[in-house]
Amino acid sequence: MTLNLFSATSQPATAPGAPALGAQRSRWMQQASSVPNLQCGKDEMFPLTLELVRRIGDGEATDLDAQPQLSSVESSRSWRRYSYALRPMGLIQIRKGVLQLTPEGSELLADESRSRLASLMAERIRLFAEVLGLLVREPLTVEEASAELVESYNLDWTSVNNTRLRMTWLEVLGLAEWLGERKQGATAEGRSLFATWDVVTPSALAMHDSGEAVEIPETPEEIAALLAHLAATDGAQEARNTYNIWVPSPKEDPNKIENLRTCIAAAEDQMEKDALLGFIADRFGLKRSSVDSMLPFMRAAGLLLEVRRGVFTATPAAKAWLRSGSDIDFIRILHANMKFVGELIRAAKANVPRNDVYREGITYGLNKDKVRWLTAFMVESGLLIETSWSSVQATATGLRLIETLPLVEPHLPEAAAELELSPGLAQTTSGAPCEPDKLSLFVESLTRSSVDPGADGAASGAAFEVHIESAFRHMGFHAQPISGSGDTDILVQWYDGNGSLRTAIVDGKSTSSGRVTHSNVSDVAIDMHKEKRSAEYVAIIGPAFSGDTIKNMAKRKQWALITADELGQVVSSAEALGLRPADVGMLFEAPDGLSRLAGLIDTRQRELDILSLVISRLKTESETEEAVSARDVSLIERGSPLAPNIDELLETFRLFDRLDLDIVRSIEDVQDPRYATYRIGDARSAAKRLRAIAASIERGL
């Protein structure tokens, strides 16, 4: 289903406002993505909100860590924790360590009505008004409303919790009510109030023509000063850093920018380091050691400032971002302090593969992992859109933003140039059993036959089916053609990581138009084929897929839509990295299997890159007879494009032990493995032995 609040057949008596798309996008970016959670019972939510606002208005919230004595709940939390719920509503602000009411908070004191608070939340909280719009249209269960939001707004929500909390607030505020069959519908007051609200429609977040006039929020003065300095000061561009990026993003709170905003908001007033990191660990359910690396990033990104030893506060620019609530202001701050931010958007002006963006990032001194983080920020802020699991493109908003940013041309740092040109890293297929030219020809045939139904002189679509079957066989799957009337094209089977047999049916669609639409696919036939073969998964493979109908059908039916190019990329990666069918099999797992497989491929490639980096470092140090530890390597290479962390390096040394003891030699073994020292061993001979073993295995196959 597509969210439609404005159709002639479903709109309420008084239609809500539908501002221009540019205004809707600006509204979306200034809204908080998380719903305020007071962590109390449903009956306590509204009375507690009013009591907190009254007490703050009376000047009682002067110590953020104090716990107020409240009449509306049995046990209270600290003012600091309550501020995380009240601030997104726009009710309070922090000034010199004291909670104060905003004008909106004062308005709520003057009119302590549920409708007043509801309107404030509709203005400030993303998808709050839009959920009520769904209930105005028709009664829905939480699951139905959540599924429609996820599909219409392309959300990455993995549970219904986000929708449930919104619907709970609507019920608490008297705008929704429970009906039969676990459904909720809008009340009469809800329908009346919704008619006065503006909403953000799904079309406002879709890809738009690059020539479209787009409005972006005005730059706050503090952030504008940073950008002006970057534009006017010699050496400022080169001084932008490439520090490692890490932000909490657990499954229940996946929005990285929103989570970072929560972390910085905790330090809006001065806060000791241990208290800040402890808060982050507690808020996101992490080990304290896991968040230690976040502090240097927040400083390097220009968000946090050390005012005296061990005491930090949000920078003026970060406080301006907290006031505006705009994700674009966060990107502006990031661009002023870190390399390849606005330039990343420029690199994706046209639809480009992620790998091209990664390669561009190397020319600015960033490794793939850092570019992945920056890309995630851009997607969350609406400046990039994922056009497929492996490609991205700048939105009209992103293109408009970079017109206002001082950008710089790439300059390949010496270390990055060495990394990019390293044979062990650049040629991932070197030494692989299949010759690169042969593999390229194999992949090319797959792509070619996808748009030529009569390829190779065969019957319509037959050549494409043969190449699909060969692709899966090449990756180690058991694949057999079926291709009979009333049956699937190809049956694919493999054993997963637990040793369980998995089965998928694959339907190949070769079209001269280069596009597969819903008219090319029969869902009834595919369901019948799936049942006949007792298959768990379905994949449709074609040159490309056009139209929302087939994509929505695939999402509803849990089919994987895979282009020939994507399958070719997977074959190449499986060949280069030695991926097992148990690894590659996740591509069948709709809706995000391909995306997760891409993440696995990136991780495996990074592991190999780090392995090469460690060997190179050990070889360099051997010239001075120096033994080095994992800790030494992490310090030496922290400014390199890869910048491996200590855990990655320890795993690399453990891998050496598992592969061949001659690769590196242990010099000093100590209790803490971080400080155990090594020298390079007979690595070249060990590599030849491993290559000989691999060749023998291949001959046996």
Explain this structure:
The chain is an alpha+beta fold and 701 residues long. Helices cover 49% and strands 11% of the residues. It has 33 helices and 18 strands. The strands form six sheets. The protein has a five-stranded mixed β-sheet, sandwiched between helices. It has a three-stranded antiparallel β-sheet with strand order 5-7-6.
First-last Cα distance: 48 Å
Task: Label the overall shape.
Answer: globular
Number of strands: 18
Low-confidence residue ranges: 6-17, 413-436
Strand percent estimate: 5-15%
The helix/strand class is alpha+beta
Report the helical percentage: 40-55%
Average pLDDT over all residues: 85
Spatial sequence of strands, sheet with the most strands: 11-12-13-14-15
Number of helices: 33
Radius of gyration, in angstroms, nearest whole number: 28 Å
The main pleated sheet reads as: 5 strands, mixed
Summarize the structure.
The chain is an alpha+beta fold and 701 residues long. Helix content is 49%, strand content 11%. Helix 7 (142-153) packs across helix 8 and helix 24 runs antiparallel to helix 25.
